C-alpha cells in the first residue's frame, strides 16, 4: 500500500512523479531525479514514483490498448503514472475518483491540451478495468513488470524460482536495522524501540545485529541513530563483514574495502573489529564523502582513497592485505525492490560489461592478498553471470585460490519468501563467495 502523503496536493505529487517516470524512461537514475524534487514534495513523490515504476509494465501494456499511438512523452508519463496508481489494489491509497480528478488537474497545468485526452483514457480504463488488466497481464511485460530480456535471463538462471524472484522484486522491502555490535545488542535495542511503540523482530544468526521493523520509520525517529547506535542496512548486506572477519582477524590486520561507497559494509567491519587498519577505496571521489559521513556518525576511522581498484599501481603501497572485501559493481538485479528504476535502466549488454569489470577487479586484487588471507567477493545480483559463473571462471584462472562453503547460506541469496509464499521476503538478492589464498 502507498503511504498517502498529507503535506501537498495530490496533483502536484502526480506531476512530480510523472517527471520522475519520464526521466527513468529516458535513462536517468531515479535517485538523481528525486534529488531535484523540492524537499517538501520528495517523500510523497517518491512513494508515487516507486509504485508507478513497480507497475510500469502493466501500465504500458494497458496504455497500448487504450491509446495505441503513444502521446508526447510528457503526457504519456502522466498517463502511465495514473494508470499504475489505478491498477487493482486491495488497499488503494486514493479513491479512483480522486486519482482521475487530480490527474486531470495535473494535466491542465502540465500540458493543457491533453487534459480531455487524459480524462477520457482514465475513465475508459475504470469502466473496462478488469478486461484491460487481464489482457495486459497476458504479456510478460504486463504480467511481471520487468523487461522481456530480464524475465528470460531469470528464467534461464533459475528455472523453478524465476517467477517468485520477479514477484518479490515488485513488493516493497522491509526496513532492516544493524545495531552497533560494540554498543548494544539487537535484543536490548528492540526493547528501546518497543518502549516507543515501534515493533521489530530479530533475525538471529548469521546476522545477530539485524532487526526488521514492523513498519518503516524515518531515521530521525530511531533512538540513538544520530549518535551511531544503529544503522539502516538490509540483512543480506549484513552478511559481508562477518564473512570476511570470520572468527577474527589478527589485531591491526590490514583490510581493504575495494568498492566501499556508500560505506555500510566499511562501518560494519569496524563495528565487529575496531582495531583494523582499514582502507576504504572507491573510484568515485564524490561517493567517498558518503563513506566519510557514515564513519563520522559512527565515530570510526579508516583511510579513504579515491582510485580505481583495477589499477593498484595508482594507489597501493605495496604491503599485502590480510583480508579484502570486493563488493563489486553489478546490475543491482537483487535490490530492484529498493530501486524499482533499475529494471528499466539496464540493458542486456550491461550484464556482459559488468561481468568483465568484475573479472578485472578480481584479477587485479588477488595479488594484493597476503598468503593465508581471505577475499570475499559480493554482488547485489541474482544473475549467475555476476555470481557463480564469475566465481567459477576466477577459480579456473587462479588455481591456487580456494572457495569455501559458507555456513548458513549458499552463494546465491534470492529475494523470495522461504516457503515460496507471497509473504514479504526478508533478504535482498546477493551473491557471496569466500576465497582464501594458501
UniProtKB/TrEMBL annotation:
<keyword id="KW-0963">Cytoplasm</keyword>
<dbReference type="InterPro" id="IPR023267">
    <property type="entry name" value="RCMT"/>
</dbReference>
<dbReference type="InterPro" id="IPR035926">
    <property type="entry name" value="NusB-like_sf"/>
</dbReference>
<keyword id="KW-0808">Transferase</keyword>
<keyword id="KW-0949">S-adenosyl-L-methionine</keyword>
<protein>
    <recommendedName>
        <fullName>16S rRNA (cytosine(967)-C(5))-methyltransferase</fullName>
        <ecNumber>2.1.1.176</ecNumber>
    </recommendedName>
</protein>
<dbReference type="Pfam" id="PF22458">
    <property type="entry name" value="RsmF-B_ferredox"/>
</dbReference>
<dbReference type="GO" id="GO:0008168">
    <property type="term" value="F:methyltransferase activity"/>
</dbReference>
<dbReference type="Pfam" id="PF01029">
    <property type="entry name" value="NusB"/>
</dbReference>
<feature type="binding site">
    <location>
        <position position="282"/>
    </location>
    <ligand>
        <name>S-adenosyl-L-methionine</name>
    </ligand>
</feature>
<feature type="binding site">
    <location>
        <begin position="259"/>
        <end position="265"/>
    </location>
    <ligand>
        <name>S-adenosyl-L-methionine</name>
    </ligand>
</feature>
<dbReference type="InterPro" id="IPR004573">
    <property type="entry name" value="rRNA_ssu_MeTfrase_B"/>
</dbReference>
<dbReference type="InterPro" id="IPR054728">
    <property type="entry name" value="RsmB-like_ferredoxin"/>
</dbReference>
<dbReference type="InterPro" id="IPR018314">
    <property type="entry name" value="RsmB/NOL1/NOP2-like_CS"/>
</dbReference>
<dbReference type="InterPro" id="IPR006027">
    <property type="entry name" value="NusB_RsmB_TIM44"/>
</dbReference>
<feature type="active site" description="Nucleophile">
    <location>
        <position position="380"/>
    </location>
</feature>
<comment type="function">
    <text>Specifically methylates the cytosine at position 967 (m5C967) of 16S rRNA.</text>
</comment>
<dbReference type="Pfam" id="PF01189">
    <property type="entry name" value="Methyltr_RsmB-F"/>
</dbReference>
<feature type="binding site">
    <location>
        <position position="308"/>
    </location>
    <ligand>
        <name>S-adenosyl-L-methionine</name>
    </ligand>
</feature>
<dbReference type="InterPro" id="IPR029063">
    <property type="entry name" value="SAM-dependent_MTases_sf"/>
</dbReference>
<dbReference type="GO" id="GO:0032259">
    <property type="term" value="P:methylation"/>
</dbReference>
<feature type="domain" description="SAM-dependent MTase RsmB/NOP-type">
    <location>
        <begin position="165"/>
        <end position="438"/>
    </location>
</feature>
<keyword id="KW-0489">Methyltransferase</keyword>
<keyword id="KW-0698">rRNA processing</keyword>
<keyword id="KW-0694">RNA-binding</keyword>
<feature type="binding site">
    <location>
        <position position="327"/>
    </location>
    <ligand>
        <name>S-adenosyl-L-methionine</name>
    </ligand>
</feature>
<dbReference type="InterPro" id="IPR001678">
    <property type="entry name" value="MeTrfase_RsmB-F_NOP2_dom"/>
</dbReference>
<dbReference type="InterPro" id="IPR049560">
    <property type="entry name" value="MeTrfase_RsmB-F_NOP2_cat"/>
</dbReference>
<comment type="similarity">
    <text>Belongs to the class I-like SAM-binding methyltransferase superfamily. RsmB/NOP family.</text>
</comment>
Amino acid at each position: 500500500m502507498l503511504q498517502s502523503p498529507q503535506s501537498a496536493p495530490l496533483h502536484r505529487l502526480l506531476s512530480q512523479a510523472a517527471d520522475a517516470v519520464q526521466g527513468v524512461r529516458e535513462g536517468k537514475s531515479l535517485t538523481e531525479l528525486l534529488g531535484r524534487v523540492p524537499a517538501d514534495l520528495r517523500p510523497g513523490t517518491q512513494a508515487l514514483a516507486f509504485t508507478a515504476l513497480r507497475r510500469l509494465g502493466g501500465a504500458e501494456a494497458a496504455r497500448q490498448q487504450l491509446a495505441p499511438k503513444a502521446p508526447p512523452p510528457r503526457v504519456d508519463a502522466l498517463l502511465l503514472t495514473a494508470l499504475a496508481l489505478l491498477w487493482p489494489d486491495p488497499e488503494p491509497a486514493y479513491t479512483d475518483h480522486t486519482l482521475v480528478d487530480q490527474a486531470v488537474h495535473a494535466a491542465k497545468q502540465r500540458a493543457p491540451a491533453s487534459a480531455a485526452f487524459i480524462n477520457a483514457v482514465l475513465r475508459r480504463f475504470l469502466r473496462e478495468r478488469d478486461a484491460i488488466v487481464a489482457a495486459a497481464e497476458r504479456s510478460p511485460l504486463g504480467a511481471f513488470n520487468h523487461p522481456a530480456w530480464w524475465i528470460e535471463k531469470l528464467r534461464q538462471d533459475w528455472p523453478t524460482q524465476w517467477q517468485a524472484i520477479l514477484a518479490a522484486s515488485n513488493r516493497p522491502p522491509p526496513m532492516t536495522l544493524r545495531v552497533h555490535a560494540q554498543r548494544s545488542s539487537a535484543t536490548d535495542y528492540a526493547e528501546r524501540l518497543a518502549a516507543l511503540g515501534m515493533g521489530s523482530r530479530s533475525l538471529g544468526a548469521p546476522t545477530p545485529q539485524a532487526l526488521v521493523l514492523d513498519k518503516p520509520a524515518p531515521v530521525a525517529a530511531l533512538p540513538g541513530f544520530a549518535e551511531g547506535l544503529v544503522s539502516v542496512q538490509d540483512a543480506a548486506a549484513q552478511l559481508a563483514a562477518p564473512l570476511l572477519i570470520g572468527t577474527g582477524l589478527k589485531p591491526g590486520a590490514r583490510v581493504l574495502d575495494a568498492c566501499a561507497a556508500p560505506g555500510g559494509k566499511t562501518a560494519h567491519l569496524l563495528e565487529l573489529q575496531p582495531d583494523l587498519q582499514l582502507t576504504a577505496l572507491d573510484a568515485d571521489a564524490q561517493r567517498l564523502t558518503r563513506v566519510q559521513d557514515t564513519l563520522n556518525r559512527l565515530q570510526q576511522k579508516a583511510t579513504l582513497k579515491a582510485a580505481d581498484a583495477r589499477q593498484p599501481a595508482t594507489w597501493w603501497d605495496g604491503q599485502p592485505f590480510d583480508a579484502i572485501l570486493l563488493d563489486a559493481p553489478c546490475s543491482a538485479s537483487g535490490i530492484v525492490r529498493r530501486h524499482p528504476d533499475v529494471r528499466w535502466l539496464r540493458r542486456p549488454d550491461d550484464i556482459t560489461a559488468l561481468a568483465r569489470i568484475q573479472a578485472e577487479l578480481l584479477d587485479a586484487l588477488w595479488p594484493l592478498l597476503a598468503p593465508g588471507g581471505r577475499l570475499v567477493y559480493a554482488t547485489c545480483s541474482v544473475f549467475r553471470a555476476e555470481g557463480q559463473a564469475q566465481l567459477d571462471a576466477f577459480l579456473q584462472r587462479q588455481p591456487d585460490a580456494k572457495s569455501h562453503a559458507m555456513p548458513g547460506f549458499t552463494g546465491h541469496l534470492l529475494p523470495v519468501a522461504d516457503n515460496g509464499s507471497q509473504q514479504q521476503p526478508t533478504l535482498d538478492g546477493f551473491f557471496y563467495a569466500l576465497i582464501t589464498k594458501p
